[in-house]
Specification:
The complex is a heterodimer of chains A (164) and B (597).
Chain A: H1 14-27, H2 34-45, H3 50-60, H4 64-73, E1 85-90, H5 93-97, H6 100-111, E2 124-129, E3 141-143, E4 146-148, H7 156-161
Parallel strand pairs in A: 1-2
Antiparallel strand pairs in A: 1-3, 3-4
Helix pairs in contact in A: 1-2
Chain B: E1 4-9, H1 12-16, H2 19-32, E2 39-44, E3 56-59, E4 63-65, H3 73-83, E5 96-97, E6 100-101, H4 108-111, H5 129-134, H6 139-147, H7 150-160, H8 172-181, E7 190-195, H9 204-211, H10 213-227, E8 231-237, H11 241-256, E9 261-264, E10 269-278, H12 287-294, E11 318-322, H13 323-335, H14 337-341, E12 351-358, E13 364-369, H15 374-381, E14 391-396, E15 402-405, H16 415-420, E16 429-434, H17 439-453, H18 459-476, H19 482-498, H20 502-506, H21 509-517, H22 519-527, E17 542-544, H23 554-558, E18 564-565, E19 573-574, H24 584-588, E20 594-596
Parallel strand pairs in B: 1-2, 7-8, 7-11, 8-10, 12-16
Antiparallel strand pairs in B: 1-3, 3-4, 5-6, 9-10, 12-13, 14-15, 14-16, 17-20, 18-19
The chains are: A alpha+beta (164), B alpha/beta (597).
């Protein structure tokens, strides 16, 4: 399968690479640590571009195919960069029955992007997520660490306006 | 000694509604009033009534303040904490009666509950091991290591009748017994904890980890002693940062106290626990997939046998139990198998925690004895359906479960009863739906979930769920035929019978159960091309009632596609060809003149 490269070119720094190499060094000898290394790598770079996966592959001596298989299997890993503000709409059952599906659709319209994409100015990215455990506030969305609950759909413009 | 203890919920629900800021403000105000030596602020786990968060309880009075706002804090501090006058207006109104303030225990939400697995949640500070020890923590481990043989431990768990709380309901004691005996002289065995709560809408495991993390560590060590393992792994979702942090703190403190590590209680027993972060894959709730994931691979399941009790993690004998199951173990050891077996029904002992959500007044976590009826849970504990709407169904078991209609609402909840009506216990999500929810749409929602989460290893699940989803889509878009319903049923049984793991074997349940209890809704979609709940967009229209429309033009201004026309002070009309059914006009209309039909 051809690997799709994202629209934004890879801009990793030497500092990030050093950090990653330290992490790899720390976990390399431990059994079954690939997931942990990928999680740390995503912390460092914000996503897992193919360049980073290739580096991990070389350092761990694990074929890139296998690493790519793992990164595309788990929803936590993103092969595309995320926005400065990461919007995540809960599509868990409790939120869905209270209308989060419509909130998600409205956001797609407002931002002009689909789930999993990023606005061209790099400001917002939009994803759906499964239950964050705040079902008492359903329907819920999060923007970075901020949680907005009991949404009706009418307040979305106001919420988005807070982020610049 | 403090004169007063203020407990503030630091669980996910209350944190999301700002409890952290509440705690900070509270501490500032207490300082301002010079009360820092008299009043103690404790951040606890979940109290259960998430709908009313952030929640705060002041002891010794037991005053239950709900939906606390930052601006209320100065008043609570100066009135209640300084002068001893409870601020009645801010209390949970259920507790306020003409005769005075009644105890939380006597409110509808709490009085039918029985907290066993959640006993420490909302009571202790989860980040302080001494508080856990003060509530009998690690006593069961001490008893097991110093007074009991491993086989005796297993016998107690067997006799208690404890069954797995993660979904399947397999007897916990039998699992342990197999892992102890199947491979004699195994050089290494493992104890795993499934904290990868994947069922969207269930968050009890998260609440136990956030509110009482030590109970899981203690139970895992007990299990380790029973089966002969020295290493444990907790596989927890990376999406649960608070739970992960508290677990890390708990593990560190337990090691410091010598309750994990080498030579525990100087009995020569070694046991340690490591955390592995899940990366978001529902299938990893399946035991073989979870173990494959701990090993650092794609979390795909593998055929059984061999069962994990024989060859699990790194091919060593392994047991896997979920968080809530473990949370019951220390008390079973301390209070005895008979105590536990006295609760519940004949084949389902003890209690079960449910995450009550959806169209219900008291959303939150409830723990009830097995055998409580669904009606009691929904109408007494849950406080009924909001906005005077009619109950339609309760969904249990998440994407593997089914929808329970009104006619079965008096069924006592236990493993076997739920299966007999086409649903299952699952991990304990209980989502309530009212007349505004379309059951075909709900079935489609769950199928979309399984299509996304199917790992792709076996064909019946990978292709079958996709085809099933497409058939549902055909029906919700108004192109369905009656014959499709029978075809769907046939495909459902094919997927159930032929899939490799539990994900595929249960994936068709939401379709089968809605077909069984809400077939009339499917038929309305197919023959009348009508969605009775007005949810499916292709089968509904948005209309303006001319008599109610005042001609204010608000709707036509907000319509994104210019589908609404009309002049000022005259009734407006929606052009159905242009309308995209976004509903923006309905939100704007102040006169209730726009309806879905």
């Amino acid at each position: 399968m051809p690997i799709k490269t994202p629209a934004v070119p890879f801009q990793g720094t030497a500092e990030q690479e050093n950090k990653l190499l330290t992490v790899i060094g720390e976990y390399k000898e431990r059994e079954g640590s690939l997931l942990r290394i990928l999680q740390e790598a995503q912390e460092i770079y914000g996503y897992l571009p193919i360049e980073v996966q290739r580096l991990i592959s070389e350092e761990l001596n694990i074929p890139l195919e296998k690493i790519y298989g793992v990164t595309t299997f788990y929803s936590q890993f993103s092969l595309n960069p995320k926005g400065k503000y990461r919007i995540s709409v809960c599509l868990g059952t409790a939120c869905y029955v209270k209308g989060s599906g419509e909130v998600f659709e409205k956001l797609q319209d407002k931002l002009g992007i689909k789930g999993g994409e990023i606005t061209s100015d790099g400001k917002f990215s939009l994803d759906d997520c499964r239950c964050i455990g705040a079902c008492g506030l359903a329907p819920v969305l999060t923007i970075n660490e901020d949680v907005y609950g009991r949404l009706t759909g009418g307040e979305l413009d106001e919420i988005l306006a807070k982020y610049n | 000694m403090y004169r007063s203890n203020v407990l503030v919920c630091g669980g996910t629900g209350c944190s999301s509604s700002g409890s952290k800021l509440i705690i900070e403000t509270l501490q500032e105000e207490i300082k301002k009033n010079g009360l820092e030596k008299e009043v103690n602020v404790v951040q606890t786990g979940c109290f259960g009534l998430c709908a009313l968060g952030p929640i705060m309880i002041v002891y010794p009075e037991g005053s239950y303040y709900s939906m606390v706002k930052v601006e209320d804090i100065p008043e609570i501090v100066s009135e209640h904490l300084l002068k001893g006058r409870v601020v009645q207006r801010l209390l949970y109104q259920e507790t306020v009666t003409a005769e005075g303030v009644k105890s939380l225990r006597d409110t509808d939400f709490y009085k039918k509950q029985l907290r066993v697995a959640l006993r420490n949640c909302g009571v202790i500070n989860p980040e302080v091991i001494d508080e856990y020890i003060a509530t009998d923590g690690y006593q069961a481990l001490g008893k097991v290591l110093t007074e009991m043989q491993p086989q005796e431990v297993i016998d107690v768990v067997l006799k208690s009748g404890l069954r797995g709380r993660g979904g399947g309901g397999f007897p916990t004691g039998r699992k342990w017994d197999l892992a102890r005996k199947l491979v004699p002289n195994a050089p290494q065995k493992y104890v795993c904890c499934n904290a990868d709560e994947g069922d969207p809408g269930a968050f009890m495991d998260r609440s136990v980890l956030e509110g009482d993390p030590h109970v899981v560590l203690e139970a895992m060590a007990i299990a380790g002693y029973a089966i002969g393992a020295t290493q444990g792994y907790i596989y927890v979702r990376a999406e649960y940062p608070i739970a992960v942090k508290r677990l890390e703190i708990a593990i560190e403190q337990a090691r410091e106290y010598g309750l994990l590590g080498k030579n525990i209680f100087e009995t020569g027993f070694d046991f340690d626990v490591d955390i592995r972060l899940g990366a978001g894959a529902f299938v990893c709730g399946e035991e073989t997939a979870l173990m494959t994931s701990i090993e650092g691979n794609r979390g795909e399941p593998r055929p059984r046998p061999p069962f994990p009790a024989e060859a699990g993690l790194w091919h060593a004998p392994t047991i896997l139990n979920n968080v809530e199951t473990y949370a019951n173990v220390p008390q079973i050891i301390l209070k005895g198998a008979e105590w536990f077996a006295a609760m519940g029904t004949e084949k389902s002992k003890g209690t079960k925690v449910f995450a009550l959500g959806g169209k219900i007044n008291n959303t939150g976590l409830v723990e009830i004895p097995m055998g409580t009826t669904l009606r009691e849970v929904l109408y007494e504990i849950g406080g009924g359906i909001p906005n005077g709407k009619k109950f339609k169904a309760a969904q249990t078991g998440g994407p593997s479960g089914g929808c329970i209609p009104m006619e079965h609402i008096d069924i006592p909840i236990d493993y076997d009863n739920l299966i007999s009506i086409g649903s299952m216990m699952g991990s304990g999500g209980l989502i309530v739906m009212d007349e505004d929810n379309c059951m075909v749409d709900i079935a489609k929602f769950f199928l979309q979930f399984t299509v996304d989460e199917s790992c792709g290893k076996c064909t019946p699940c990978r292709v079958g769920t996709k085809r099933l989803y497409e058939m549902l889509e055909k029906i919700t878009s108004g192109k369905g035929e009656l014959a499709d319903l029978d075809k769907m049923e046939e495909l459902c049984h094919y997927i159930k019978n032929n899939s490799l793991c539990g994900l595929g074997q249960t994936a068709p349940n939401p379709v089968l159960s809605t077909l069984r209890f809400f077939r009339d809704e499917y038929v309305a979609h197919v023959t009348e091309k009508r969605c009775p709940a007005h949810v499916c967009k292709d089968l509904m229209q948005i209309k303006i009632i001319a008599e109610k429309c005042k001609g204010c033009t608000a709707c036509s201004r907000v319509c994104p596609v210019g589908a609404i026309s009309g002049t000022v002070k005259n009734p407006h009309v929606i052009d159905q060809k242009k309308c995209i059914k976004c509903g923006a006009c309905m939100e704007k209309c102040k006169f209730g003149a726009i309806i879905k039909e």
